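Quick one:
INPUT:
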């Protein structure tokens, strides 16, 4: 049947079943798509060995003594190709182009040439050249995309890697590790996941895809994306095959993006966004049975560091506090919420004393000096704590209540911890009410000055008066600060009051002047916050000029705390300017602060006002009396006059007069009274 002039190839075509050239012939070698990937970078011999051509050859009805398989693979345009050359016994050959569409399950064999061996030599050389070029292209593509191909034989556990996989591991090409060793390249935290992916694909036949971190043989950290699938031979799982790609740069870009959205750039710890996520997560995890404590930390004295030592110093403090928090708590459980405010989350906080101990540890860590430019920076901190689910059932409320507790800690003297209690909540509600009351009165013209006379203690002559703020309530009555006391520590409320009082009191002074009445020196109280907002001295002096009032007709009363605040330099400057212009300055509530002596020496103070607490506690022979006497002597030695406030009894007045006190105020003489509209002026004793 095979004529001598008929070539092997002719026979081949004759004998081959009709379906041979199509995709799906029983008994013909079928190669899964993934196998082609597995061929990348391997020798023809390897591949041929694996392909088990026996079926193919038997279909052809002949035995081939030689096979050549080009290492070429074309991966472009969605096709993969490999050329096979089968040599027949009669020196003929069969060139087969194996083509697989990228999305096909099996490849298609296309016999594209069958000719005599004579032609073969030359042809093969050309074919090799093409193959070589293509495979070098492929290597380039692999290299450029940092993609490598791998396979694991499920029976033998033997792996194959393309060059790029070795490069990715920083291994010499060919230095193939065992599968167990290969797994060790992955980061410890990723290893189990990688193992699981492989096992699952093997068990289910479903492809996998994962990203994982990997430390190369040279110790470099890389991130890879691996995909793989199961290859079956004869229905039996045979190999896991896939590709692995170096996605470090992409990973780092993504990480960078994530970091910039979730990590505070200055301190390197989570920011408010991440903190809020964490808080919700922890509350979710705690559920109905667990617990979470939220600690809010706010630095005391931070603004001072910023103002006096510069922003670099402030930044250093923030960084160091963040670092100390990170040393005390899991990194993700602390955060910088902004400014000098930090948050710490604790889970399972049944034992409150343990939580408080941790808060104490934070405060201690914050108090430690921060080295800066060969010097030390010092701040302290206050902490507010609220507990889920005891204090609050939601993340929002927990944050709000911890904030209230923090506020309470600050108010009760800073550098301490305070836990939320309903009492704090009530205080806060009262405060909000008081602030609202001041704001509304400010808008509705409900701020009214009352005037309390100040008398010369020697002869009872009226020297002037102090203006005290009163608010008109909805019912029309006037109430003093005790009715809105909580607002008297609110900066905005104090600014509203002082601004309004300056206008109303000077207006009243002008009315008195026009009516030919001299009220003496009128004293105005000014809070620290009033000095902080804008140019207070200028505002006061402009107002006096506008109404043609002599500066000497006004006195500004400040407490020594204004000098201790974060803006003390601005306060000093304003006071100096007022004093230069002729406004007299009184130091209010004298004796209750700490820096009194220093202030007496350094500032242009004309008067001190001995605090009511000394006067009311004073007996003729008691300690208070001695202290008051000493204060008066000290002030006089510094050429400063003394007024005692809160004089309620004649005994007190007599003692003070005897001690040389210059002036006095108090209910004994008169309480503060508003000016009656009809009289247009406070009656002044002769
Ligand atoms: P202060 O400046 O020490 O004012 C004296 C306070 O003592 C006034 O209370 C006055 O009514 C009260 N007082 C006067 N004589 C006696 C007395 O004999 N016995 C007793 N027990 N109290 C007496 P008031 O008006 O309730 O003001 C309280 C505080 O509110 C003031 O203390 C001052 O710190 C602040 N304040 C009042 N008006 C203003 C204002 O316009 N601006 C600012 N920033 N603070 C103000
Ligand atoms: Ca006062
Ligand atoms: Ca006072």
């Amino acid at each position: 049947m095979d004529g001598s002039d008929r070539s092997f190839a002719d026979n081949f075509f004759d004998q081959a079943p009709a379906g041979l050239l199509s995709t799906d012939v029983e008994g013909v070698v079928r190669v899964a798509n993934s196998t082609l990937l597995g061929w990348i970078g391997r020798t023809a011999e390897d591949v041929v060995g694996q392909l088990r051509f026996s079926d193919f050859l038997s279909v052809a009805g002949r035995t081939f003594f030689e096979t050549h398989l080009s290492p070429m693979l074309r991966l472009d345009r969605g096709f993969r190709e490999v050329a096979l050359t089968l040599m027949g016994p009669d020196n003929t050959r069969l060139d087969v182009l194996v083509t697989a569409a990228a999305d096909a399950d099996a490849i298609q064999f296309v016999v594209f040439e069958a000719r005599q061996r004579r032609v073969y030599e030359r042809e093969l050389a050309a074919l090799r050249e093409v193959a070589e070029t293509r495979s070098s292209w492929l290597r380039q593509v692999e290299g450029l995309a940092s993609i490598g191909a791998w396979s694991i034989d499920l029976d033998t556990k033997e792996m194959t890697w393309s060059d790029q996989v070795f490069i990715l591991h920083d291994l010499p090409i060919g230095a193939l590790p065992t599968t167990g060793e290969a797994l060790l390249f992955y980061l410890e935290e990723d290893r189990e996941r990688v193992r699981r992916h492989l096992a699952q694909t093997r068990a289910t036949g479903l492809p996998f895809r994962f990203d994982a971190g990997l430390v190369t043989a040279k110790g470099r950290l890389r991130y890879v994306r691996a995909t793989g699938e199961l290859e079956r031979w004869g229905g039996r799982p045979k190999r896991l095959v896939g590709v692995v790609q170096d996605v470090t740069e992409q990973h780092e870009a993504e990480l960078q993006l994530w970091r910039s959205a979730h990590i505070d750039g200055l301190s390197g710890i989570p920011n408010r966004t991440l903190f809020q996520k964490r808080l919700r997560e922890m509350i979710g995890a705690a559920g109905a049975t667990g617990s979470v404590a939220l600690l809010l930390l706010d630095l005391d004295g931070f603004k001072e560091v910023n103002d006096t030592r510069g922003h670099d110093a402030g930044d250093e403090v923030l960084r160091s506090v963040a670092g100390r928090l990170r040393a005390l708590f899991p990194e993700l459980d602390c955060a910088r919420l902004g400014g000098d405010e930090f948050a710490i989350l604790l889970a399972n906080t049944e034992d409150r004393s343990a939580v408080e101990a941790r808060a104490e540890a934070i405060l201690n860590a914050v108090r430690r000096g921060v080295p800066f430019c060969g010097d030390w920076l010092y701040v302290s901190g206050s902490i507010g704590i609220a507990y889920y689910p005891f204090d609050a059932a939601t993340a929002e409320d927990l944050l709000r209540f911890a904030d209230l507790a923090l506020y309470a800690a600050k108010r009760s003297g800073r550098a301490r911890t305070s836990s939320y209690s309903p009492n704090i909540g009530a205080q806060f509600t009262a405060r909000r009410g008081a602030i609202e009351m001041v704001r509304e009165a400010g808008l509705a013209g409900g701020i009214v000055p009352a005037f309390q006379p100040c008398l010369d203690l020697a002869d009872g002559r009226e020297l002037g008066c102090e203006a005290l703020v009163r608010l008109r309530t909805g019912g029309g009555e006037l109430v003093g600060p005790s009715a809105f006391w909580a607002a008297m520590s609110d900066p905005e409320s104090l600014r509203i009051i002082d601004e309004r009082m300056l206008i109303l009191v000077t207006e009243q002074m002008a009315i008195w002047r026009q009516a030919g009445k001299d009220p003496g020196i009128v004293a105005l109280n000014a809070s620290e916050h009033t000095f902080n907002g804008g140019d207070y001295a200028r505002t006061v002096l402009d107002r006096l000029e506008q109404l043609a009032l002599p500066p000497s007709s006004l006195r500004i009363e400040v407490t020594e705390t204004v000098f201790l605040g974060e803006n003390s330099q601005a306060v000093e400057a304003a006071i100096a300017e007022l004093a230069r212009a002729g406004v007299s300055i009184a130091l209010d509530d004298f004796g209750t602060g700490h820096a009194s002596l220093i202030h007496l020496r350094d500032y242009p103070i004309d008067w001190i006002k001995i605090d009511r607490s000394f006067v009311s506690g004073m007996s003729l022979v008691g300690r208070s009396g001695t202290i008051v006497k000493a204060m008066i002597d000290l002030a006089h030695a510094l050429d400063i006059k003394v007024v005692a406030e809160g004089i309620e009894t004649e005994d007190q007045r007599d003692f003070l007069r005897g001690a040389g006190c210059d002036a006095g105020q108090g209910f004994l003489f008169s309480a503060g009274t508003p000016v009656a509209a009809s009289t247009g002026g406070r009656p002044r004793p002769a």
